[in-house]
Automatic annotation (TrEMBL):
Gene3D superfamilies referenced in this protein's UniProt entry, alphabetically: Histidine kinase-like ATPase, C-terminal domain (3.30.565.10)
InterPro entries: HATPase_C_sf
Organism expressing this protein natively: Plantactinospora sonchi
Name the UniProt record assigns to this protein: ATP-binding protein
Keywords, comma-separated and alphabetical: ATP-binding, Nucleotide-binding
Keyword Nucleotide-binding listed: yes
GO terms of molecular function: ATP binding
C-alpha cells in the first residue's frame, strides 16, 4: 500500500482500510465511516451526509482507477472531526471531475471541506467533517 498524503497527528486515532477498487466493496467504507462518525457523537443527519460524501468521492475515484486497483482509505479521528482520505492509482491521462461539477458540489455541501490531489499516477480525495453540535 502506498502511504496516503495526510500525515498523522499525535493523539489522533487512525484507521486504514484497503478494499478492491470495485463498487461492490464501497459498503465496507460507508459502514466504517458511519461507525467512526457515531463514535464522535455526530448527529444522525451528519453521519448520513458523510456516508453519502464518502460514496461520491469513491465513485469519482473508481472512474479513474487502474484495472485491478485497490482503494486505500484513511480515517483520522480527532476530538471533534473526522477526516476521510481515499486514494487509488489512476489510468494515465485520467482526470477527476472539475470542481464546478455536480459531484464536487455534493462533496462540498456535505462536508466541512473537500479537496483532491492527482500526482504521480495517484488520485486522492480528502474530506473533512467537523461535528456541528455538542456531545
Amino acid at each position: 500500500m502506498t502511504p496516503l498524503t495526510t500525515p498523522s497527528t499525535t493523539g489522533d486515532d487512525v484507521v486504514l482500510l484497503t478494499v478492491p477498487a470495485d463498487g461492490g466493496y464501497l459498503g465496507v467504507l460507508r459502514t466504517a465511516t458511519a461507525g467512526l462518525a457515531a463514535r464522535l457523537h455526530f448527529a444522525l443527519d451528519e453521519i448520513e451526509d458523510l456516508r453519502i460524501a464518502v460514496d461520491e468521492a469513491c465513485a469519482m475515484l473508481l472512474a479513474v482507477a487502474t484495472r485491478d486497483a485497490e482503494l486505500d482509505c484513511r480515517f483520522a479521528v480527532t476530538e471533534d472531526a473526522l477526516t476521510v482520505e481515499v486514494a487509488v492509482p489512476t489510468v494515465r491521462g485520467s482526470r477527476l471531475p472539475a470542481e464546478s461539477s455536480f459531484a464536487w458540489k455534493v462533496l462540498t455541501a456535505l462536508t466541512t471541506s473537500a479537496s483532491a490531489v492527482v500526482s504521480d499516477g495517484r488520485a486522492t480525495i480528502t474530506l473533512l467533517t467537523r461535528r456541528s453540535g455538542g456531545v
